[in-house]
Automatic annotation (TrEMBL):
Enzyme class: hydrolase
Protein name listed in UniProt: non-reducing end alpha-L-arabinofuranosidase
Family indicated by similarity: Belongs to the glycosyl hydrolase 51 family.
Organism: Evansella alkalicola
Entry superkingdom: Bacteria
Amino acid sequence: SKARMVVDKDFVISEIDKRIYGSFIEHLGRAVYGGIFQPDHPSADENGFREDVAELVKELQVPIVRYPGGNMVSAYNWEDGVGPLENRPKRLELAWRVIETNQVGTNEFVDWTKKVNAEVMMAVNLGTRGIDAARNFIEYCNHPGGTYWSDLRKEHGYEEPHNIKTWCLGNEMDGPWQVGHKTAEEYGRLAAETAKAMRLVDPSIELVSCGSSSAQMPTFPEWEATTLDHTYDHVDYISLHQYYGNRDGDTANYLALSLDMDNFIKTVISTCDYIKAKKRSKKTINLSFDEWNVWFHSNEEDKEIEPWSVAPPQLEDVYTFEDALLVGSMLNTMLRHSDRVKIAAMAQLVNVIAPIMTKNDGGAWKQTIFYPYYYTSVYGRGVALNPVINSPKYDSKDFTDVPYLDSSVVYNEEKEELVIFATNRHLENGLNVDIDIRSFEGMELIEHVVLENDNPKAVNTLENEQVKPHKGGKSYLEDGKLVGVLPKMSWNMIRLK
Ligand code: AHR
């Protein structure tokens, strides 16, 4: 079967905000302790951060990292994580029912993000706390000095303000599991008033209001409409969260789940724009897809974890080859909506549903999902173009007319590079593609990277990397056309210059 695509310089979706390639570190499981931070590990630097992990994070070129939660933030006292280590309290961490030692907190995390060349996306607690704690926290982080909280930061060894620009107003406040869960009315009022106070402290910040925890929430999308009614004038973004899994072992249906993500994004955009119209506003609210990934492999094991331990192995999904394909398509989906999706966070970054895994007594390695994330983050910078796709289609359990070819296209003007990301969802057959790139004259093929594997369930371990890309993709240029073959069940990156 054959698919056709037209890629044109003028079919511009948007300049891509690099923060679309963000990620997330929560105080959860071994993300912080045993992940980014492990003072007794042979690769630890003078501050206790693992160099092996930092190297992999740098390789991904993660531009921004959301912190410190997640569900955890909804009962977190930020003051517990600053100041002399010996004074930091051990607390019962209610979201994940573990003990939080607070050996890493705001300042250490800011240090770590500098080490890996990323910015911080900070979340405030709107579960158990509210306006007062949030305004103190931003004063501590961003005010230059001469006040109680900013001087305390200096006393803690941080003379210069952290100048954190992107802030989340709580986490998943629509979810009944959240400590301090709220109705849309309650959250909308609290978020608006907290945003006002935070902006009075630092008018240069950008704020993210909580959207739904998934498109499957019974309150979606009424939650967005009601909360935005309160927050519209005070925030810049609304969040989306979504995790997928292949619980029934139905790969054809699983690989189509990015269509659900596409629909979720479209509905949130429509809801934002409905409130815009209702308010006769000139302002547009953009989207922060600040939790997205595959999450289901570890669900059963997590039920066995004893409560109140320190940094147990929670949410340690071991990703398969087919998960990497869906991750690639989720990235494509967000790029095709990059006119509105300005921030996103692969959840999460290390050990906890993550592209990077570690052993406490060993090294760090790349999970299967590392690869589409890596290539899209590193090469998907510039302007997103709208590919006109004509592909054969299939029906699956939950979807009809699923195109076998899923693609996104990026033009990097600075490097004069055209980059095509493409997944072939076909489980048995390769897909011939004809890509009309006539508006780009004189391009030459740099590389065609392919991620493929005969076994959809193949995984990577520290010792054995079964799933890794190769550069032997079959494509060539012919009369202004790129002609190629995408192997069955494969993720591809074709780069031209
Ligand atoms: O990323 C894991 C958890 O998923 C987060 O803590 C929460 O926000 C979401 O439910």
